[in-house]
């Protein structure tokens, strides 16, 4: 967290999904969250959490943003956004141009769509890119960001090719699954701001 903040990241993420090598407990997430200055937003990633688990996670961690990264429906994420007054993001795996049409169901329900590679063994964090050229062919009506296999070596190209206004990386900043590399974090942030 300190490395991301020091490198100028606008957001830092906390994954609360037990199947992920990046999983943090509520207690760990809260302790990490308290290290982050107000100038950096904390994103809590949840996957298919039921209403009780979602409420508990938000109450315990106190994120600025909730990123839903499973099969959550527009009505559910919209309700979280409306009732709790939190910024809400929805991750969508890009398979084809139809992904963007289907994402329109989230307009007015989320603050941002995060376009990622299609789910594999994990819903995200697989270190896999997708066809970025698909993003150029779509007229976006919802603020969006780019995820999926981004690294210090490819993030500048990804931004240049897609025009992404926000980029998200996880596995591309690790020396091993779940082990963040402070040098890669710094290099990623520098490359993302280089354009």
How is the secondary structure organized here?
Elements: H1 2-6, E1 11-16, H2 26-33, E2 41-46, H3 51-61, E3 65-68, H4 74-84, E4 87-93, H5 98-103, E5 112-116, H6 133-136, E6 144-146, H7 155-162, E7 174-176, E8 179-180, H8 182-192
Parallel strand pairs: 1-2, 2-3, 3-4, 4-5, 5-6
Antiparallel strand pairs: 7-8
Describe this structure in words.
The structure is a single chain. With 195 residues, the protein is an alpha/beta fold. It has a single domain, classed as TIM Barrel, CATH 3.20.20.70. 33% of the residues lie in helices and 18% in strands. It contains 8 helices and 8 strands. The chain has helices spanning 2-6, 26-33, 51-61, 74-84, 98-103, 133-136, 155-162, 182-192; strands at residues 11-16, 41-46, 65-68, 87-93, 112-116, 144-146, 174-176, 179-180. Helix 4 (74-84) links the parallel strand 3 and strand 4.
Quick overview:
The chain is an alpha/beta fold and 195 residues long. The protein is 33% helix and 18% strand.
Mean pLDDT: 91
The CATH homology group name: Aldolase class I
The spatial strand order of the largest sheet comes to 1-2-3-4-5-6
CATH topology annotation:
TIM Barrel
Largest sheet: 6 strands, parallel
Task: Report the CATH architecture.
Answer: Alpha-Beta Barrel
């Amino acid at each position: 967290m300190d490395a991301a903040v020091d490198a100028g990241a606008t957001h830092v993420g906390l994954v609360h999904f037990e199947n992920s090598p990046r999983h943090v407990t509520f207690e760990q997430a809260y302790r990490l969250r308290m290290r982050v200055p107000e100038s950096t937003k904390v994103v809590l990633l949840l996957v298919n959490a039921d209403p009780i688990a979602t409420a508990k996670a938000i109450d315990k961690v106190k994120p600025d943003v909730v990123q839903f990264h499973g099969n959550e429906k527009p009505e559910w994420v919209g309700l979280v956004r409306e009732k709790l007054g939190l910024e809400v993001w929805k991750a969508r795996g890009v398979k084809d141009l139809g992904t963007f049409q289907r994402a329109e169901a989230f307009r007015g329900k989320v603050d941002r769509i995060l376009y990622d590679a299609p789910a594999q063994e994990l819903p995200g964090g697989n270190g896999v890119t997708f066809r970025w050229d698909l993003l150029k062919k779509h007229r976006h009506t919802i603020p969006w960001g780019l995820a999926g296999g981004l690294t210090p070596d490819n993030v500048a190209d990804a931004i240049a090719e897609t025009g992404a206004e926000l980029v998200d990386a996880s596995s591309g900043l690790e020396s091993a699954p779940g082990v963040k590399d402070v040098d890669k974090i710094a290099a990623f942030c520098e490359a993302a701001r280089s354009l």
